[in-house]
């Protein structure tokens, strides 16, 4: 750790915070687009003007937009994003109930996807141009182009309906046993792995291929190092940063997949909560879920940036 | 232009076939898409109903053909809008630089960090789901990507000798953009258009699949999968066929892009 690294990390942190601020402004603005007034929409046509005025004051709708944004952002930061418009429950507790389920799914998916994608990315970069590389590239294009719900539907049809190996619903209350849970979650995890692996493997390969094209690798090759030694000893340390970045950026694709997968398998996670909130147009809940997802994604990207800086051998000594 | 590979030719034919199907749907569909034509719901493939029937007993072939109009039409309009906005902003940023470039880049980069399906959900929760909202949302969501690409390409071209020469000749910014930079951007921008088209199709069908996209009685391919999902448990063609329609279209577009010489990302050998 030296001054150059610290300065870079501080810069990334500042940029990340700026991005988060812009994103929260965007999420807030999107819900400002609503024609008319939330209070009128909530109370219906038969509401008295006094009731509407009262609710407007309660929801801070009588304040200018920038003030409401600050109130909203402050609530978000302090862990109190308000109450649901539909059932009046605090948004924080609604999210708190679902968060562990989503984290479980995310964690297990990461355990499967990341090693698989890295293996695919590294091996295809190692043997780039070979038949293996071309077959994997074609398969990845196929998988990346296909909607997530097609993969999930096919999985249900094959494994739950035809073969009867796996359950079509991914959640049962009160399951404690790890292996039962894994069995229940096998299809969602499998679907998400297919959704995420393409992008991750492709970006890993691209990062490694860039490094493999540099002249010091040519040098290693000329002195007689084998392909495995070149990739593992010479190329990987320099490609580590871009690869970590690739993994973090690919989670953006996984997120879209999670939304579809939780809905199909009726899994009580955060994404399902958000989809349900969108159909009932429960704006505070939608905003909170969106900010949580964006915040998680941005933190992952930030962590990856920091790891990339720490892993960069060129920055290590000055 | 070099010769296209056989894969690219097949992909091009599939795309053209879907385009023709979408344009001619009212003429070539055997039945009106909304009419119930059989009591046999979620039926298998037969001579009379080549793609089976749906959950109400409507002809699936007719519904898939009409669905192509929604899926492809909306995606085409959104993608065109996104690319127009992205390229305009990107060119302006590359040509003007300075504060405009910095502000635009910061905001649009922040927009990229919101996953697309998530952004579409937020917009729909506020404005409700209708075709104009979906088109607008998809266009705005995919503008930053188009901006980033066209800005990067334009900055590269602007640094080349022939642009310097044009500037030394005393040509104005508009002339340089129109006559020197734009013609050299066409291939990357077209490739990007194709990629973005696939993203938009996947986004729209995904939203429809969640029941938050195209609303019945109108039906795009995503809606068709959703409304027949109960047929999944016995493999009814009504749920498989629209999903396959999406897959054939998106895979073809991606395969075609991948085979265009000098444009794919896969040829980094």
Count of DSSP-assigned helices of chain A = 13
Radius of gyration of chain B: 22 Å
Question: What is the count of structural domains of chain B?
Answer: 1
Mean pLDDT of chain B: 86
CATH class of chain B: Mainly Alpha
Q: Report the β-strand fraction of chain B as a percent range.
A: under 5%
Task: Give the second-level CATH assignment, the architecture of chain A.
Answer: Orthogonal Bundle
Label the CATH architecture of chain B.
Answer: Orthogonal Bundle
Query: Helix fraction of chain A?
Result: over 70%
Order of helices and strands of chain A: HHHHHHHHHHHHH
- What's the CATH topology name of chain B? MetI-like fold
CATH superfamily assignment of chain B?
A: MetI-like
What value does the Rg of chain A take, in angstroms?
24 Å
- First-last Cα distance of chain A: 10 Å
Biggest interchain interface, per-side counts: A-B, 57 and 51 residues
Structure classification of chain B: mainly alpha
Mean pLDDT of chain A: 82
Structural account:
The complex is a heterodimer of chains A (318) and B (269). Chain A has 318 residues and is mainly alpha-helical. Chain A has one domain (3-13, 102-316): MetI-like (MetI-like fold). Chain A is 78% helix and 0% strand. Chain A contains 13 helices and no strands. Chain A is globular, with a radius of gyration of 24 Å. Chain B is an all-alpha fold. Chain B has one domain (6-258): MetI-like (MetI-like fold), CATH 1.10.3720.10. Chain B has nine helices and no strands. Chain B has helices at 6-28, 60-96, 98-112, 116-127, 131-158, 161-169, 173-209, 221-227, 237-259. In chain B, helix 2 (60-96) runs antiparallel to helix 3 (98-112) and helix 5 (131-158) runs antiparallel to helix 7 (173-209). The longest helix of chain B is centred in the N-terminal third of the chain and has 37 residues, at 60-96. Chain B starts with 5 loop residues before the first helix and ends in a 10-residue tail after the last helix. The model of chain B is unreliable at 263-269 (pLDDT under 50). Chains A and B meet through helix 1, helix 6, helix 7, helix 8 and helix 10 of A and helix 3, helix 4, helix 7 and helix 9 of B.
């Amino acid at each position: 750790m030296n001054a150059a690294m610290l300065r870079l990390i501080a810069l990334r942190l500042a940029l990340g915070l700026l991005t988060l601020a812009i994103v929260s402004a965007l999420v807030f603005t999107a819900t400002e687009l609503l024609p008319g007034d939330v209070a009128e929409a909530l109370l219906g046509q038969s509401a008295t003007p006094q009731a509407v005025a009262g609710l407007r004051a309660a929801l801070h709708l009588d304040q200018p937009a920038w003030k409401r944004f600050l109130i909203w952002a402050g609530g978000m930061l302090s862990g109190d994003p308000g109450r649901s418009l539909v059932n009046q429950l605090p948004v924080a507790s609604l999210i708190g109930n679902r968060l562990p389920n989503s984290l479980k799914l995310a964690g297990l998916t990461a355990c499967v996807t990341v090693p698989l994608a890295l293996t695919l990315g590294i091996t295809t970069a190692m043997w780039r141009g070979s038949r293996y590389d071309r077959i994997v590239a074609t398969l990845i294009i196929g998988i990346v182009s296909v909607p997530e719900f097609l993969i999930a539907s096919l999985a249900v049809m094959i494994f739950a309906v035809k073969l009867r190996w796996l359950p079509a619903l991914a959640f049962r209350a009160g399951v404690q046993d790890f292996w039962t849970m894994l069995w229940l979650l096998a299809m969602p995890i499998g679907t998400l792995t297919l959704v995420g692996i393409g992008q991750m493997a492709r970006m890993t390969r691209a990062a490694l291929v860039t490094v493999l094209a540099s002249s010091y690798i040519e040098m290693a090759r000329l002195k007689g190092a084998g392909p495995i030694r070149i990739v593992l000893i010479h190329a990987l340390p320099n490609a580590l940063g871009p690869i970590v970045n690739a993994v973090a950026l690919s989670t953006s694709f996984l997120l879209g997949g999670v939304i579809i997968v939780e809905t199909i398998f009726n899994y009580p996670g955060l994404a399902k909560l958000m989809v349900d909130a969108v159909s009932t147009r429960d704006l505070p809940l939608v905003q909170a879920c969106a900010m949580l997802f964006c915040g998680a994604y941005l933190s992952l990207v930030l962590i990856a940036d920091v790891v990339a800086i720490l892993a960069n051998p060129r920055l290590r000594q000055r | 232009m070099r010769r296209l590979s056989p894969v690219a030719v097949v992909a091009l034919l599939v795309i053209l076939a879907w385009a023709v199907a979408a344009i001619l749907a009212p003429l070539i569909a055997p039945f009106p898409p909304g009419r119930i034509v059989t009591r046999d719901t979620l039926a298998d493939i037969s001579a009379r109903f080549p793609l089976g029937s749906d959950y109400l007993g409507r002809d699936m072939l007719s519904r898939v053909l009409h669905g192509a109009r929604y899926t492809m039409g909306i995606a085409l309009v959104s993608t065109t809008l996104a690319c127009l906005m992205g390229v305009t902003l990107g060119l302006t940023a590359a040509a003007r630089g300075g504060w405009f470039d910095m502000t635009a880049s910061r905001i649009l980069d922040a927009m990229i960090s919101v996953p697309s399906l998530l952004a579409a959900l937020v917009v729909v929760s506020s404005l409700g789901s209708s075709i104009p909202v979906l088109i607008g949302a998809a266009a705005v969501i995919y503008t930053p990507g188009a901006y980033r690409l066209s800005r990067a390409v334009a900055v590269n071209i602007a640094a080349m000798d022939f642009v310097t020469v044009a500037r030394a000749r005393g040509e104005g910014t508009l002339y340089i953009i129109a006559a020197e930079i734009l013609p050299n951007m066409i291939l990357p921008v077209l490739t990007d258009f194709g990629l973005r088209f696939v993203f938009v199709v996947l986004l729209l069908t995904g939203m429809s699949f969640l029941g938050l996209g195209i609303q019945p009685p109108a039906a795009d391919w995503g809606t068709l999968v959703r409304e027949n999902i109960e047929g999944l448990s016995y493999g009814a063609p009504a749920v498989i066929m629209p999903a396959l329609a999406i897959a054939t279209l998106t895979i073809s577009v991606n395969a075609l892009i991948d085979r265009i010489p000098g444009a794919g990302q896969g040829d980094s050998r």
